[in-house]
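Hi again,

Forgot to attach this to my earlier email, sorry! This is the prediction with zinc ion bound. I've pasted everything inline since the attachment limit keeps bouncing my files.
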Amino acid sequence: MRSLQRDESRARYDLLTLTSYDVTLDFRDENTFPSTTVIELTSRGGETFLDLKPVSLTSITVDGIGLPVDALHEGRYPLDLAPGEHRIVVEAVMGFRNDGEGLHRAVDPADGSAYVYQMSFMSAAPSVFACFDQPDLKAPYTLHVTAPDSWIVAANAAGQQVEPGVWEFEQSEPLSTYFVSLVAGPYHRIAGQHDGIDLGLLCRGSMASALEADADELFTLTGQCFDEFHRLFGIRYAFGKYDQAFVPEFNAGAMENPGCVTFREGLLFTTRVARSLRIQRATTVAHEMAHQWFGNLVTPTWWDDLWLNEAFAEYMGNRVTAEVTEFSEALVWASLARKNWGLTADSRPSTHPVAGTGALDADAALQDFDGISYSKGHAVLTQLAHRVGDEVFFNGVRDHFERHRFGNATMSDLFGSWEAAGAGDLGEWTSAWLRTAGLDRIDLDRDGGALVLTPPGGVATARTHAFSAATWDGDTWVTSDVVVGADRTQFAAPDQAAVVLDAGDTAWADLTIDPTTAAALPELMARTTDPLLRATIWNTVRNGVHHARLDPAAAVRVICAGVPDEEQDTALTSLGQWTGEDGEGARGLVHAKLLAVVAEPDDARSQIHDAFLARAFSAPMNSDLQLAAIQGALSTATDPGELSSFLDRGLFPALEIDAGLRWRALKRLTTLGATDLDELDRALADDNDAKTQISHAWCRARLADPDAKAWAWQRFTGEVDASNYEIEAIGTGMWQTGHDELLAPYVERYFDELPGTTSIRAGWGLADAALFFYPITAVAGETLARTDALIADPALNASMRRVLVDAGDDMRSRLRARERYVG
Ligand SMILES: [Zn+2]
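Structure tokens for the complex follow:
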């Protein structure tokens, strides 16, 4: 189906003014649901179309006159509306989905209960109700839902059950289609209140105890964030009540639907988690709250400004979490958990400017919705706020909210408000940071006594970088402020002294630890206590290996020296993911894996394992630090006997071993070839829930067995249907280093069969399956050649091409590092 074009959206905006939507849905069947939409509008006279993706269209009337249902084509229903007011009534049958978009329906294996939620972002609303699906045609919604008697239903506006199974909702404030949402099912709901705002927390019934355990923490930080946003923005939250729902099989981290935010269930903890996950959850809560103003109250006119939504929410979310909640180290977390995502994205062939990408249609915008929008956007807004000062920054933001309240606006509207508030001319800064793609690289030239700036592609960018450099003076780290703006900036590094650029983590640049510093760091890590400085060391070491400028063996030595006294569990988690096996940990391709490019991977793995184990033994029993260290030790374990002993509490007799740790150990045993399907089935039967089922699917795909690989492949090709979460687990599970012969046929089949998956998937699910099933462990020039050949095929789907460009970039990075350091 054709994605909405920008000029089409402008024409429709010029033609129509929407008055209201009235939507009636019935969830009593399992596969489909009836959907009736009444749209009141005023037309200025002309042809247009309605967006609608039903299983079948039952009827459509305009002003009471029936129109032929067979005029619906490719999700569009053509309309010719005379000048004046009109009432359009559409009756259709829609389908539930299991790819995380539209109305997603999932059945809980723990108790057989079904759960539904609506994810309209960014173009899935028409698979729920008939609409004009573009961000700048806002209207208030009135919703009516019939559902099984045992369900509760929550939506953007407040509602209530008026008789068993019948739910009526108040008319909402004006909403864009992309954030119209509801959740329905036998959800467990906990009510709260803060400053006159009714709060709700929801999750599936089988996770109720996890929600109850954390309700205080969630309500507390929600209240703290509301107070701070009210203070900073000077405008009260505008959407009435505020529900936060943890929903099954959610693709993103969360979605900011006004009054009805949806979160992935991984942010609700049924097993013990390290503090880094609590920080991630807190910053996500704050991020979605910031969107209630920036994105929901004032919405981008078109998708090309979506980056600004995310950059703003990311900046405010991290800042407010650090400043007003118990998670004061949120910025250290952001540095370790988010920054390399953006830096890597900005160094790829697919890099793009933060702003002004043009985004001709929604699909194109979705592809540019990446680490550059979030992480680089966050970095540049931090820079801007620092440059203009808080007073000007927030005066501009308040002016923006007041001018465009419940409406839409563009980036230039916001920058206009900032300039009017006293920011001065931001043109040059905008052009250097927002409209220029790529990373400046900054290297230390010791002999030349300079910092050397290399712009991306050799084209000067007019950017300046202000940061602090830390130099080891033999006793301690001494920092000095530097501004790097030209090709070379004087910087004298004492002979053989270690130097870490960007000690305060304020720069956005491609930085590498130089070999002299890398050699010195193993001695110095124990004396390096500043968490931001340590975060920068970990980031720059990782960046250097990714770009084949730092020997992976040197990185291993720094890790082995630093892990045993690392104080941030976020750092241990982040390093554990980097040093773990391909496919272990979510989204396996985000960074190259260290052990895929090191010369002696077995030795390196066992040294890193020992370092994590040492940290696990020295950390307080059952502490977050210990948990993160144990997770790192499990993912680098090589001895099945040790893993079995761990599970039997031989290693840590007083450790709480829950399903989270048990399945980590089982995954590692599977990778080591030390378990089989029978044992995995028994473990699942002992503790069968949505999470353990996904872990089991991962393990099954990883078994060194032709049947297991064939089983996995049937899910990729769609021969057997699988949900979005199963696709992720099975795709990342099946590829394993060392199983080259078993997997060789699937390398071929991936490139042959990938293009055909457009017939079974769409949207995020299409790109995600392409990513998760990419043969990342087949590190060979031939894999890269096949990748490049498919990228060059003009018939290839655009979102698949984007995935292949990035996956190919990771493959190229692995090959380059191996060539340089493995020989
Ligand atoms: Zn967001």
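The longest strand covers residues 32-43. The chain has a mean pLDDT of 95.

That should be everything now.

G.
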